[in-house]
Amino acid sequence: MWSGRSRATLFLYLTALKAKNMLISRSALFLAVISFCVCETLPAQPGSTLLKWSKEGNSFYRVSSGSIVQVDIQGQETEMVASDQLRPVGEGRPLNVRDFTFSQDGKKVLIYTNARRVWRYDTRGDYWVLDRVTRVLVKLGKDRPSSSLQFAKFSPDASKVAYSSEHNVYVEDLATGQNKCLTSTNNTRKLINGTFDWAYEEELECRDGFRWSPDGKHIAYWQIDANQVKDYLMLNTTDSTYPFVIPVEYPVAGEPPSPYRIGVVDVVSGSNRWLDIPGDPRETYLPRMEWADNSSQLILQQLNRKQNESKILLSDIATGSTTAVFDEKDSAYIECKGFWQDGVIAGWDWIGNGAAFLWVTEKDGWRHIYRVSRDGKKETLVTKGNYDVIQVSLIDEKSNYVYFIASPTNATQKYLFRTRLDGKGALERLTPVGESGVHQYDISPTGQYALHTWSNASTPEKQELISLPAHASLSKAKTASEEEPSRAVVFFTIKTADGVDMDGWMVRPVPFDASKKYPVVFYVYGEPAEQTVTDEYGTGSNPLYNGDMAKDGYIYISVENRGTPAPKGRLWRKSIYRQIGRLNIRDQAMAASEILKWPFVDSSRVAVWGWSGGGSSTLNLLFQYPQIYKTGIAVAAVGNQLSYDNLYQERYMGLPQENKEDFDAGSPITHAMNLRGNLLYIHGTGDDNVHYQNAERLLNALIKYDKIFQFMAYPNRSHSIYEGDGTREHLSHLYTDYLRSHCPGGGR
Q1: Alpha-carbon span 384 to 398, nearest angstrom
Q2: Region for residue 529 given its phi and psi (left: phi exceeds 0; alpha: psi -120 to 50; beta: otherwise)
């Protein structure tokens, strides 16, 4: 499922694809903006900030014409690493720098290049180290396969680099060039050290699976034993004469997860100690592990199988003993940091020299920041009020402030706020009141400056450097995204027969004649992973439609049902627990019922479309409310919830062993017999996320009930259906032709 987290919304993701005709993230759109402050490369994974701020917070680093430069706040550049220094011996051209990291003393730089994709992100590649004093450039892992290194990091003293490769963790001595394997896969394919299996990566944002101790003497790492998880066998029928299978460790709902262990290895002796972590590793998850602000303890977060209890544990690396210091329970579920922190799950927010840490929880009905003592015995509410913290932007302990994104009065927007770390301060809005919409901030480590990105539905994204807290502009704002044809997006709130107030947006036909009736096309996601009604640029566009929907006479609408991650409080978000495929579907249908009462809406021409979770919602709306929805286009949908991964589906639905009837009731395949309208179903046969099996099982159900529909399988395409020449154009034409044929535009 397209989990929200650090991924761009699928809606904006597809808009970018349409604009660029290539795979590109929303953050990548930002990279083409302020010429003196943006890197030329794309982030390899979530959590990469747009700017690589200096420790002093008054400058940043970027790649410029193959060189690495330092840029001060006034825009003056200083070359730090010339491109010629990045040319390997015997090579004709410099390295293509995908990412880079300076050592703490600034004397060495770690270069990431030749990147390759692992499921969602380009997290494996080659690493090189440049000694800026001797100007010697050395490739790491010379005995390892090309593009197999992941998550390389300097030791604190920069004498060594650790990295993972083919499921093992290595350490390489930069003085001798010798590397040493610190872990073992026991000669198996799925004993994974230093990174994660498919489900942990997809649903918990876990990718980088090892950490240097602050003193550089130890490395702590995850070991995931996916040998104990069944493989889903994907069939590749296009890349060779004889088809072959691609096994993916994939535990479906009802199956236990891969068990885990945390090891701590001495980098000199190679001796390893496993932590003694309470609980059954096949009935729990361990999404977070960090050094506890010292080199003798680790701090962990453990979730139970149902993900409705979270424990914080402290472990002694000398003995392996582990003690629980904080316990939180929820009647529905608890989401991890990566979900609300823009995909960033690494790090731990220590304050007071390790005496306390900041923790985000929804225990009082809103997502708030708490200050928790190291032993877990004292809690202080830092953010107070009936609003959600959407994202923590910066902890400025020196000034006693925490900066965060929130929107207390409008769930479609985002603004920067701050308050005192001690919980005694008032809420301060820093974003100017006159700039309504969605705001994002990349704040310097000192809190003095930030890269500010802002847009709303009618204003293209703009970027500028600002000073804080005054929010004073330091550079002329530059447009950060290509302008699209102007469209008048109207935001509205509609109350359903169930008394639910739902936000929505609408784009009317151009020209518009209120005396005529027009077809309406609903765009839907509807599940906890995504919010579709947001006041940002791109809202109201349809990336799959080949043309201009407004000029072709369509009303285009999206409404936000309960259970989506809108900042409307815990009750709004978690009301969907055990009701995916029912509560969200009813909310959508009841909102549509009210919209069909509008005098300019043609109730005989009602279409709906969505992708992934939105594809599932599309199917359910067509099947459960055929009297409302006459045409549907579903892409990469989950046809049966029991076929999707355990982490996502069990988090929001419970365990099939306890309440299988809820999974069945919310699955489109259960209601396929009710199809009366027009259905176009689309799926990629190489989808590792929502497996192609979903499509064929749904097809069998429709065939069983003699339902006529149209189906398109894209050979060996993934969940995003973009691979291969002509794929995106074909998909767009297919979508557009079907919509025009079965739900023609224009007023009548």
Answers
A1: 21
A2: alpha
Adjacent-strand bridge partners of 438: 414, 455
Residue 112 parent element (H or E): strand 108-118
Which one, of 555, 636, 546, 561, lies nearest residue 598 by Cα?
A: 555
- CA–CA separation, 8 vs 10, rounded Å? 6
Q: Which CATH architecture has domain 489-742?
A: 3-Layer(aba) Sandwich (3.40)
Reported as a single tens digit per residue, the pLDDT across 88-100 is 998 989 999 999 9
Fold of 176-348: Methanol Dehydrogenase; Chain A (2.140.10)
**Statement: residue 138 has pLDDT above 90:** yes
Q: State the DSSP H helix or E strand holding residue 16, giving kind and residue range, or none if neither.
A: helix 10-20
In the chain, domain spans: 39-166, 176-348, 489-742
pLDDT tens, position by position, 547-566: 999 999 999 999 999 999 99
Instruction: Looking at 351-416, list the stretches that DSSP marks H as alpha helix, in order from N- to C-terminal side.
Output: none
Identify the bridge partners of residue 118 per DSSP, sorted by sequence position. 121
CB 705 within 8 A of CB 603: no
User: Among all chains, which residue has been given the structure tokens 């199917």?
Assistant: 619
Using alpha carbons, select from 254, 331, 253, 322 the residue that is nearest to residue 286.
322
Bridge partner residues of 370 (DSSP):
359, 381
Listed in sequence order, the residues at least 6 apart from 280 whose beta carbon sits closer than 8 Å to its beta carbon are: none
List Cβ neighbours of 737 (8 Å cut-off, separation of 6 or more). none
How big, in percent rounded to 5, are the helix, strand and coil portions of the chain?
15, 35, 50
Determine which helix (DSSP H) or strand (DSSP E) holds 732, and give its type and residue range. helix 727-742
- Quick: pLDDT tens for 145-167: 999 999 999 999 999 999 999 99
ω before 469 within 30° of 0 (cis)?
yes
**Is pLDDT of 431 > 80?**
yes
State the maximum Cα–Cα separation within the chain, in Å, rounded to a whole number. Answer: 82
